[in-house]
Amino acid sequence: MSKHYHWLSISLHWTMFLLLVLTFITIELRFIFPEKTRSHDLMRLWHYIFGTSIFFLVWLRLLVRSCTSTPNIDPKPAYWQHILAKIVHFGLYLFMLVAPLIGWLHISAANRTPTFYGVKLPVFVDPNSNLAQTLLNYHDEIALVGYTLIALHIVGALFHHYICRDSTLIRMLPKTGGSKTRPNYQRASTPQLGQLLKN
After folding, report:
1. Residues 155, 181: Cα–Cα separation, whole Å
2. 7-198 architecture in CATH?
3. What are phi and psi for residue 155, nearest 5 degrees?
4. Per residue in 113-145, pLDDT tens?
């Protein structure tokens, strides 16, 4: 079995990570511009576009994941780490599906036309200012949970790479020229972990 994920899974993973970063940046940058200005509206528009891109790509990623094999982690992590990773991954996929969908509904309820790179998307709800505000509140709360999960995911990957010294992170990196370049993984012993934490 390959030591790495399928190249399409790797490409989708890093593309969606970039989109998540851009989604966060654009929605935060809008606050530096006065409301109802072109720059403010442009930041909000790109936030919608990036978020919708994530929504569509996550379906493709799930399809690729179901059709390709998952490389084993070497050495095998502790059972609690495996369960925690499953929970975080499930939460991330749910976040990438639900948050954009609620944003899509919010745009419709706010009497704005949802678009995707200039293409008009279906409107699922009638204009309703109260519903629009409620959906926006849900969207913001889910986004906060989602960004927390992303932070946990990053910390977990770095923990596995630098502390546990296993192949968790390497699996999601492109291949770099064959078996000669593959690192020799060796789980850090308890004394080594203690020394690392002291440094």
Report:
1. 25
2. Up-down Bundle (1.20)
3. -60, -40
4. 898 998 999 999 999 999 999 999 999 999 999
